[in-house]
Amino acid sequence: MIQVTNEQVKNIPLLHVVRHDLQGEKLPTVFFYHGFQSEKELYLHYGYFLAERGFRVFLPEAKFHGERKGTITSSEQAMYFWDTVTANIEEFNDLRQELVAKSLVDEERIGVAGVSMGAITTLGILARFDAVKVAVSLMGSAYYEAFARELVSAAEAEGMTFPYDVEARIAELEPYDLSKHLERLGNRPLLLWHGKKDDVVPFKYSEKLVDTLTLENRAENVEFVTDEHAKHKVSIDGIDRTTAFFQKNL
């Protein structure tokens, strides 16, 4: 039986998914991050499939989303997209430390994954923290600066104005931008899944990352899976590959 509980850790709401017979054991653990303008509950199926295979899974609620949305508008969620991403990244380390201290998490077997904004979060966590051993990016971008500029241009074309210095905010993303710190990936296994027709997070970012890693002889443990027809939605095959990748590498 799979047990799902809604918990608060370090004042961060999260779903905790684990097999009932393993709930008290120290387990290999996956932190799974949800997409933009979504919420943790909508990604529970990832937790279920992974928990079935013996993983402990935590699905944190992102800042300005779900239980943490408060009165923020959709436009404000967009304006503060990168604040949400960087909050996810820094909060990951807080969550990890707390859960390791509770002897729930095998510190040597920690994985991170996510979809869209959650995949962007995942790649940023790789850039910041060595504690992650395996990662899966489903429709993400490691190119924070480039993607941020693309999002700003699109927003400004629709008449949006930003209540902060855009250039200063983009500059603050540098420590989280894996594309600028590829050496931080090391030899950690990374699965990149992306649909070629993605019209939200362009496929070109995953393709460029793989090409660059290959050119620099850093792609030995990188698996790149493309879907010729997928737009911004992970296929069942993508979900299955995520589970299999963690089974193999974590």
Automatic annotation (TrEMBL):
GO terms for biological process: proteolysis. The keyword Hydrolase applies. Keywords: Hydrolase. It holds the Pfam family Peptidase_S9. Residues 87-249 form the Peptidase S9 prolyl oligopeptidase catalytic domain. InterPro entries: AB_hydrolase_fold, FrsA_esterase, Peptidase_S9_cat. It comes from the Bacteria. One of its GO terms (molecular function) is serine-type peptidase activity. This is Peptidase S9 prolyl oligopeptidase catalytic domain-containing protein. It comes from Listeria aquatica FSL S10-1188.
